Amino acid sequence: MALDIARPKLEGNIAVGEERQIGFAEFGDPQGRAIFWLHGTPGARRQIPVEARIYAERHQIRLIGVDRPGIGSSTPHEYETVIDFAEDLRTIADTLGIDKMEVIGLSGGGPYTLGCAAAMPERVIAVGVLGGVAPTQGEDRIGGGLMGGLGLHAAPLLEYAGAPLSRVATRLIRLIKPVAEPGIYLYASISPEGDRRLLARPEFKAMFLDDLLNGARKQLAAPFADVVVFARDWGFRLDEVKVPVRWWHGDRDHIVPYAHGEHVVSRLPDAQLFTLPGESHLGGLGEAETILASMVQLWDACQSESDGAPGGGKR
Fold first, then answer.
1. What's the distance, Cα to Cα, between the start and end of the chain in Å?
2. Cβ pair 23, 74 in contact under 8 A
3. What are the distances in angstroms from CA 183 to CA 39, 120, 175, 214, 217?
4. How many CB atoms lie under 10 A from the CB of residue 300?
5. How far apart are CA 284 and CA 277, in angstroms?
């Protein structure tokens, strides 16, 4: 059954400027509530678990994956700050006829998710973050982890060498395509147990490979651009994110430490942390149905609260 809906129902590009476009892929119910799903680093628009696609189909959710600039069919572009991405998502939502939305972000998609919430509180009902990257600069910063350590040191180099490195990476992806599946098994063999379990699941492995090979077929600049912009001030403070945030994090995450999730959640005005016992960095992807169900319930609660407030309108 999963294979029947493995491909997007709608896939294309949206102009976000005179010389730029962003790729997107839609799953689920075209008439349902809109939930944008922002991929990790690396990743692309199809990095959405099969279980999430099935759940969206059955529960009237319009689930939309979005390429960041420099991956898939999106034009390469480097944001000055993380929050700048929100203007592109606003344009995408306008073009697709979407007013209200929720946004979910995995890992490197987490900062952009929070940025959209800070920039568009009138349109973003709530957000979900799965093992999201934490700030490394400013009053919200926290050290350690892959981004707080290696990422900070690599960012200055990538500002100048990101373009040639992305070309090399793209060529490597093309070369390893015939052995991509064994490559996944190799990566799984050196991953923590939680991620190893996920990568052993046939439908998860198929999704992961499809997204990687499709997204990186022509370019692979986005991951390098992510590292650079994450190492800067994000352009907003965590206490400026006023909408509800639900955060899922594996307590054995080897890439973004669990303590980073605790730190960010403690600084958000309206946030709740859900611990994934024994899970590592990809653990949130294995809880896709639960996460979508929670986000739908949160949407209902926010709408009821808004309807019940004096003079309140529907969110």
1. 34
2. yes
3. 20, 40, 12, 16, 16
4. 12
5. 11
Residues in contact with 278: Cβ distance below 8 Å, sequence separation at least 6, in sequence order = 193, 194, 250, 251, 252
pLDDT digits (tens, 9 = 90+) for 256-299: 999 999 999 999 999 999 999 999 999 999 999 999 999 999 99
Q: Can you list the alpha helix ranges (DSSP code H) found in the chain?
A: 50-58, 85-95, 109-119, 145-146, 152-176, 180-189, 193-200, 202-215, 222-230, 258-267, 288-308
Q: Output 152-156 pairs: Cβ under 8 A, ≥24 positions apart.
A: 152/231, 154/227, 155/227, 155/228, 155/230, 155/231, 155/232
Contact 238, 114 (CB under 8 A): yes
Quote the pTM value: 0.89
What pLDDT is recorded for position 200? Answer: 87
Q: For 170-180, what is the mean pLDDT?
A: 52
CA 160 – CA 171 distance, rounded (Å): 19
Angle at 282 between CA 246 and CA 192, to 5 degrees: 130
Q: So what's the pLDDT on residue 46?
A: 95
Task: Tokens for 115, please give them.
Answer: 């940025």
Residue 219 pLDDT > 70: yes
Q: Is the pLDDT of residue 314 over 50?
A: no
Q: Percent of the chain, pLDDT > 90?
A: 67
How much is the average pLDDT of 162-170? 51
DSSP state of 106: E
